[in-house]
Design goal:
The protein is an alpha+beta fold. About 35% of the residues lie in helices and about 25% in strands. The strands form two sheets. A six-stranded mixed sheet has the order 7-9-6-10-8-11, sandwiched between helices. A five-stranded mixed sheet has the order 1-2-5-3-4, covered by helices on one side. The longest helix has 18 residues. The structure holds adenosine-5'-diphosphate and magnesium ion. The site of adenosine-5'-diphosphate has 9 residues, from helix 1.
């Protein structure tokens, strides 16, 4: 099979989108309404063995994370929450207690961020758990922040810390003892917090141009902004926001934090670009600059970083 992104490009070419609608290629589809708002829609799957290990993640964490990764795509557009739909397939042997705990996690995050559950679908599955969430949001007409609006000279910014979640996954896969910084990193992997309030604030800030959430790692995600906007980027790896816990983990186990921050994914932080004059009140770190020249330059490293791909 071709690469994941070539596969999606093929779908995009086969299904042209009607005028006025943003379809494939952004974190959400954007559908204009006649009441001064636009509707945001996105869907994301979590498949056992691919996105999570059932023997490690708790049902509560899985319920939370299934919703979180989807809510994050509304945050990525600067949208206001409207609701979600939950489709789930589980083996017949799954206990009622497991499902109850799963729903408990899903309910807690839905309540915290204001996404009511509005429907879904339920099925049995031959052996594995599979989850698909669809999320809906809205934004005042024309205000959603797309991947396609970056301009040369923009600063490249990121909220929070990058790489924690990928280090948490590394700790799970390598069976690291759950002590010191490890529980924090694993929490960052299993219980991400979508940046809904930050996204809404950035969408209201003059001079903020393009935005997306970090799901596949900056090494992959910045390329989406570059491609959709027809620009290049220069990222200074020494400016990446790395938590003390990530640094400690890398020191202890001899790993390179850049691998987690740039090649790893699932931080669900916001990656955005803004004109140098923009007055931004959301806490963030400037990590580079959008360039007219279409290439991608990693300042401070002689390596290349490509992020995570499914195939
Ligand atoms: P994200 O990481 O923000 O969820 P993805 O990388 O999963 O985004 O997808 C990139 C874009 O491709 C999105 O606009 C998404 O809707 C679209 N896409 C992905 N898979 C498919 C598919 N099977 N059919 C139609 N569109 C798809
Ligand atoms: Mg996204």
């Amino acid at each position: 099979m071709k690469g994941e992104f070539e596969f999606i490009d093929g779908i995009r070419r086969t299904f042209p989108v009607p005028d006025g609608i943003t379809g494939i290629g952004d974190d959400c589809a954007v559908i204009p309404q006649t009441d001064g708002w636009e509707t945001l829609v996105s869907t994301d799957m979590l498949v056992e063995g691919v996105h999570f290990l059932l023997e490690d993640i708790s049902p509560y964490q899985l319920g939370w994370k299934s919703a979180a990764v989807n809510f994050s795509d509304i945050a990525a557009m600067g949208g206001t929450p409207s609701g979600s739909f939950l489709a789930i397939a589980v083996p017949r042997t799954t206990g009622a207690g497991w499902l109850e705990e799963f729903l408990h996690g899903y309910r807690d995050i839905s309540g915290k961020y204001g996404f009511p559950l509005l429907g879904g679908d339920t099925s049995s599955s031959p052996d594995r758990v599979s989850i698909c969430v669809t999320v809906l949001g809205k934004a005042p007409a024309g205000t959603s922040l797309k991947r396609s609006s970056a301009r040369p000279g923009d600063l490249i910014c990121v909220t929070g810390f990058t790489g924690d979640s990928a280090a948490g996954l590394d700790a799970v896969l390598k069976g690291r003892p759950r002590e010191g910084e490890v529980p924090y990193l694993i929490d960052r992997h299993y219980l991400p917090h979508p940046r809904i309030a930050e996204g809404m604030s950035l969408a209201r800030t003059d001079g903020v141009h393009a935005m997306m959430d970090i799901s596949d790692g900056i090494g992959s995600d910045i390329r989406h902004i570059m491609e959709e906007s027809g620009v290049g980027a220069e990222i200074d790896v020494d400016r990446l926001p790395l938590s003390d816990e990530l640094r400690a983990y890398c020191r202890r186990f001899g790993a390179d934090p850049l691998d987690f921050a740039l090649n790893g994914g699932e931080d669900y932080e916001l990656l955005f670009t803004a004109g140098p004059q923009a007055s931004i009140d959301v806490p963030h770190t400037v990590i580079g600059q959008i360039t007219e020249n279409r290439g991608l330059v990693w300042k401070g490293s002689d390596r290349d970083f490509n992020g995570f791909r499914h195939f």
